Structures are given as C-alpha cells and as structure tokens.
## 1
Amino acid sequence: MNTVFAVTLVFVGCCSNVVFLELLVRDFPGCGNIVTFAQFAFIAFEGFIFEVNFGRKKPAIPLSNYVIMVTMFFTVSVINNCALNFNIAMPLHMIFRSGSLIANMILGIIILKKRYSVSKYLSIVLVSVGIFICTVMSAKQVVSITMLTFALLMSARMGIFQETLYKKYGKHSKEALFYNHCLPLPGFVLLSTSIYNHAVLFSQSSPVEIPIIGQSVPVMWLYLLMNVITQYVCIRGVFILTTECTSLTVTLVVTLRKFLSLIISILYFRNPFTAWHWVGTAVVFLGTLLYTEVWSGIHTPVKGEKPDKKTE
C-alpha cells in the first residue's frame, strides 16, 4: 500500500511541479532564482521542525562535509536557473537532466575507477547519442546547453561525493535533504536583486480568485505556491519509495515520470519538438532503461528468482 501511495506522490507531485514551473518560466524566463529560493526555504523550514527537532538533533554526518556537498548543490541549482534565462525549451532542459545517471557513471569510472558491464557501457553511448541529437537540433541555444552540461557533470560529481559519505557514515537521506536546502539559504543574498525584482513582477501579475477562501491573489504567486507544494510532494514520494522498493524500481519510476513530464510539456504547452527531437528523446530513455537493467529485473520475478535487496 505504501508503494502505491509513494508512486502516486511521485507522478502527481513531479508532473504537476513541471506544469507549474513551466507556467512560471513561460511569462518570466528569469524567475528560476525566486522559485529555487521558495523551494529551499520551504523544505528547510519543514526539515528544521520534523528532522532536526528545532536544531536539537545533531547531524550524523559532519557539517564540514555538508558544506562541500551544499556548495556543489547550490551551484547546480543556480546554473540550471541561469540556463532558463536564455529561453531554453523545457523539454530540452528535461532531456539533459535525464542524463544525470549516465554522467554519474562516467565520473565513477574516472574518479572511483569503477568497472561496469557491456550493457551499461552501451547505455552510455545511447544516452550520449540521444542528447547529441537533441543538442544539434537546438544549436541556437549554445550558451544554455553549455551551462546545462556543466551542471550535469557537477551534479554527478556531487552524487559521487554523497555516495562516499553514505558509505562512511551510513544513509541519512532526510538529514541530507534538510542540510542541502538549509545551508545554501544565505547564498541567496547574492541573488537578492533577482529575487526581489521577480517578487515585484509576481505581485503585478493578473489576480485570480481562490474559490475556497474567496480571496484574489496575483496568479504568479499562486503558481509559485503550487510549485513549492508539488516539489515537496515529489521529493517525499521519492523518499518513501526508496524505503519501500528496490533501487531498480525507484529508478524505473523516476525515469517513467520524467518521460511523462516531457510528454505533458510538449503537448500541453505546445513546445517546439521536431521528429529528430523525438528520436533523440527515445534514444536517451532507451539508454537509461538499459542502464537500470529493467528487462532483466522484470524477467527475474517471472522465473521465480529472488528479487534484489531493498534499498535501505
């Protein structure tokens, strides 16, 4: 029952989040900083109450390690937001972020000297080809593509650093979620001008009446509120899923969710997407599914073999 609930949270929360994000950036492409700040502040506030018990609970992982992780996390978030300033299409943005698993694998080979099966190396080629096709078809967005590529590699490096911390201190995903969103908050002072300017613009947007309370609020503030809530629902759903299912199942659900979000973005918002973009997208997701060994994972229960151990 918890698994079904978690999957529902992931699909409803994450897909809705994409919709409200696109509603925001469609009118204000540079609003990424205020959106990120609102998300960070909300998750940090919730974690301060329910995770660290108003600061009384000491972290299991030393704060010095979190500072390093947070620096990378904050950098990735800001660069992704800056890429949106160049009016990059949301579908292309999602395709690049779908390559995070493969980027993590490549850096794992270089930094941790890991070795993988032939199928996983093939998945690298497929994802790389898919992203290359989509990139070529969006060649006019060179600056934003460069920024997304850097953010992708930085995110993968952060994932490797997080993996080494978990091996040393144990898995503390809720704690990491809190500190990753709390410690960067002072850094938003550097972005205060952008945040303030967009707050003013949001306040000047068209009013919309909220049926339950009968009050009118600027529509952009409503979109922002819904974006923050759905982002939280999405993250909570993924967290529950990791405690209930195997890592394979979690990866498959997240991958399918990204694909559904992509379809919604293309069809509902009529984003430009050529036949070659579709080919590139299909190759990216095929490579991702190949990496997660979905087919063997499905084949194993059919044969009555023992499933993978659940993610802790």
Note: The radius of gyration is 20 Å.
## 2
Amino acid sequence: MTELAFDLVCEILARVPVKDLLRFRCVCKSWRSLFQDEGFIRKHTTHAPSMFLLAANWWPQYRLRTCTYEGLTLKMILQDPELNDGGEKNFLFEASVIGHCDGLFCLELQDTSLAVWNPALRELTKVPRIDQQQTRGMRIGFCYDHSIQDHKIVLMPLKNCSKAHVLTLKSSVSRMIDFPWRQNCELMCKKEGILVGEYIFWPLYAHESTIENGENILSFSVVSETFDYCSGPGGKYRVLKVLRGSLCAVDEERANYCHDMVVWCADHEKEDKGRIKSWRKILRLTASDIERSTRWQVVEFRLGAVINRSGLLLVLVRTLEIGFILYEYNLEKDTMRQVDTSFCYKLNYHDKLEEYIATLVSY
C-alpha cells in the first residue's frame, strides 16, 4: 500500500478530535512533534467542533462541567479542573470563568489568584500573582497576541484609577499601562471581556449624561496595548457575545409582563482587525414569539449561549408549566427547536454556558 504524503496526513489529523490525538502521540516521533507545532495547532482549531462549558451557580458544590452539543442534544461530560497542590489533587469548587481564548479558560480561584485551564488536555496551571495584587473587584481580559505568540491577561480597576496591569504568560512579564478612566462611568458587573479579532470589549454602565458621544463600550487593542471608548447600540444591554466572528450586544427591553430580547451585531473595520464601524439590529425576540413556537407559557427568558460559527442562539426559557427549557433559535430560518438536556444537570436561570473549541493549545 502506497504511503500517504505527509501534507495529506496533516490535513486528515487536523480533523481528528483532541482526545484521539492525545492517544496518537504514541504512534511515532513525527506525529508527537506535529501535535506540538504552532501551525498544526492553529489549523486544528479551524476544524474543531464546538463544546460548551457549563458553570452552575446554585449547586450544593460548585463545579465546572464540559458539554457536547450535537443534534439538538446538550450532553454533559464529567470533567472538573484539578489543581495539583503539594502532591494532592484538589477540585476547584469556587472557580469562576473570567475569559476564554483558543480553547483555554482563564479562571479566578477562591483565593482570588488566577489559573489557565484547557478542558480538552485537562491541564490547569496557576498564574503568578501580579505584584501580589488581589483580582477581586477588577475587570479582566484574556487574549492571544499573534505578534509575540503569547497569551495576555489584562486587569483593570472598576473606577478611580488611571493604570491597568498587563501580564504576558509565557514570559511572566507584568507591566502597568495607562487606563483612560472616566468620571461616573463603570464597567458592567461581568468580569470578563469579549475577544473579537485583536480587540477585547467590555460594556459600560453610566448615567446618560455622563456617556460621551454614546461611547458605552470600552475596547482594548491586544497588540498596541491601548484602551479606547466606542459607541454601542441603543439601550442598556446586559451581554456581549461573539456571533459569526463579530461582536454582538444583547438588550433586554421591558414589554408587558416579560422582557423582549434585542440582538445587535457590529460591523468591524477589516483593516483594523476588530475596531467597530457600525451596528445593525438582527433580532427582536418576544415571549409571544416563543409561545407560538412551543406549547408553554413563558415566564421569562434570556440568551443562554451563542454558537459562533453557525449563528445559532441557545435561549434559556422559564415556563409556567415545567420550569426551565433550552431552545435553539436559528437566525436564518427564524425557527425554534427544543434542546434535549436530559443527559445534563437540570438547568437553572443563573447557570452560564460558554462556547469553546477543544484544542491542543497549551500554556
């Protein structure tokens, strides 16, 4: 049998799940070396299927779980991050997700220290403290800087400070940079920023009179390490996500007994690799819309997660009859289908789903 060309072998292996690649490292030295190659790892991420991290806020014991989503089924995989401390493995019961990039999650631990976790590789590594500073009460961004081939963490104060921290992980270099703090303007309660291209975005909260030119979003350039303010859509939106590679903002607007969900999508400057150019409204979803697609009476609903590549929305709905149900909303077809969560923990309105891809990226 004629051997396949190595380039063709690489193309085939780039479509193989991470769990299988980990076993294939034992096949030969060339494969083991290939799986550590930066170019192959990046190629593999373009083919990797979507996964979800489920962070439940009201369990008796707080756990992070990874889930697969295929064929309208959300299925839990029982994986927990572990920290090897003094030879003993300890599960992280009080870890919170504060950012993710390239299949890696940045976690804030119970003692306010930071860690980076790859669920696919089951690797969790503590990040050295930044000048012994506590991270609680700060807003955090997690990103990859292609110009230096290293991941970065940026930490910002809530208010009344003109400096922020930037930490590059592999080099463990920490430095202070200028932060353009504005009077009476605060970052929203969510800690993590949303990475799009080479920018991280955070929503701002402020009284209308204090928002300059409608600039209610804070941005951070990953490469130049500079902050800027930019304009978001109308309304006091609660959530920023990534939809088909673009930043999207989700508003909640009061209508009768239930909030409407309004989704905006940003158009980005292609030359600037992420800077926002304009906004367009792509969806207004009401309780009546959901009730027409189902047989249940809706009490409340919210965006559960976004499937970035396919442009699907997962909507968590609380019904009067049977409690919480997860639905898949197709933006192109304007249809809703119920998601099977019977293999998963019974969802709560405060639970958090984050899409990610299983990759070989390691820190």
Note: The helical segments are 6-13, 18-24, 29-34, 38-47, 287-293.
